[in-house]
Amino acid sequence: MSASETFGGGVAVITGAGAGIGAGLARHASRLGMTVVLADVDAAAIAALREEICAAGGTAIDVVCDVRVATSVQALADKVFRDLGAVRLLINNAGVEQFGYLWDTPLANWQRIVDVNISGVFHGIRAFLPKMMSTARPAWVWNLSSIGGVAVVPLQAPYIMSKHAVLALTECLALEVETAGHADHIHIQAVLPGAVASNIFESAGGVDSGDTGAAESQRAAMLDIKAEAMDPLAAAEVLFDQAVSGRFYLITQPEYVGSAMTERARVLSTQQAPQLREHRRFDPTQN
Ligand SMILES: NC(=O)c1ccc[n+]([C@@H]2O[C@H](COP(=O)([O-])OP(=O)(O)OC[C@H]3O[C@@H](n4cnc5c(N)ncnc54)[C@H](O)[C@@H]3O)[C@@H](O)[C@H]2O)c1
User: Residue 271 Cα, ligand 1 centroid: separation in angstroms?
Assistant: First the structure.
């Protein structure tokens, strides 16, 4: 089955749809014939995207939702199930970055990472999955981890920690769905993007005191890779095609992210200590 045969006619709910990867996923889901629910804290961004999608002949609604707040995500779910019916695809995508040494990290920035990147995904699962499991209809849940879910990088520890958490949460969730007897129609999938053009590094937190220079030079290093980053629409097309093929790990750049997965497996299997890389990151140009 093609992505449009599988997903066309269904409802897609995408958190963090106002920019970057989420906006690309929303545009592509609409092209596949899905009704798209755009959820974000940035009301202006999702209103503009809703207008763009509708002007192109698609169907979309925008709902302001803060994934940090369980009641906000529950209100989103209640509205979607009431107004649009069954959800075929939930994408827990909203996420934020943080730069700087861990010991310099402001408490509020640590909490922001935990609340958006980890609790936000949990809130999505809690609000949507029981209803998705309650019918025999096929449905998909994608959680956004990252290449940072399998790599270790200094000066981004809270983010890297959160993406490892999302990967583990998603792997456990897949087993739980199977244990509970829903794996015949509920597809849990982990998304591990490599570098994809977005606003994530601009909107990332930094540090107020301590080594602010180290934090900002890491931000600059990450902004440098944006020039070579994948287009979000192209990334979305790859992810939808992989989802239909039944893979568990959905990967925007299979070679580049795959090499990080292989490296992680090698480090763990040889029980080596983490080693500082010269460039402190995986080079996307090696794709
Ligand atoms: N861009 C990349 O290279 C890359 C790589 C790997 C993983 N990811 C992951 O992809 C996801 C999307 O990131 P992106 O790069 O497109 O970022 P982005 O900053 O371009 O977009 C993130 C969106 O999430 C929204 N958002 C932030 N906090 C929110 C909240 N509390 N509730 C609801 N919405 C909120 C923002 O307003 C924004 O529209 C993240 O989970 C990120 O970790 C991105």
Answer: 32
Each residue's pLDDT tens digit, 65-108: 999 999 999 999 999 999 999 999 999 999 999 999 999 999 99
Distance CA 194, CA 146 (A): 7
Q: Where does the chain show beta strands of DSSP type E?
A: 11-15, 35-40, 59-64, 89-92, 139-144, 186-192, 249-251
Which residue(s) pair with 99 in the sheet?
none
Ligand 1 site, residue 146, Cβ cutoff 6 A: yes
Q: How far apart are CA 249 and CA 243, in angstroms?
A: 9
The residue with tokens 């937190």 is 205
pLDDT above 80: residue 281: no
**Of 192, 180, 202, which Cα lies nearest the Cα of 250?**
192
Atom of ligand 1 nearest to the CA of 197: 1
Among protein residues, the one with the nearest Cα to ligand 1's atom 37 is: 42
Per-residue confidence (pLDDT) for residue 211, from 0 to 100: 98
Superfamily of domain 3-286: NAD(P)-binding Rossmann-like Domain (3.40.50.720)
pLDDT tens-digit profile of 39-51? Answer: 999 999 999 999 9
**Cα torsion through 154, 92, 7, 248, rounded to 10:** 50
Question: Residue ranges of the domains in the chain?
Answer: 3-286
101 is an active site residue: no
Ligand 1 centre to CA of 6 (Å) is: 25
First and final C-alpha spacing in the chain: 28
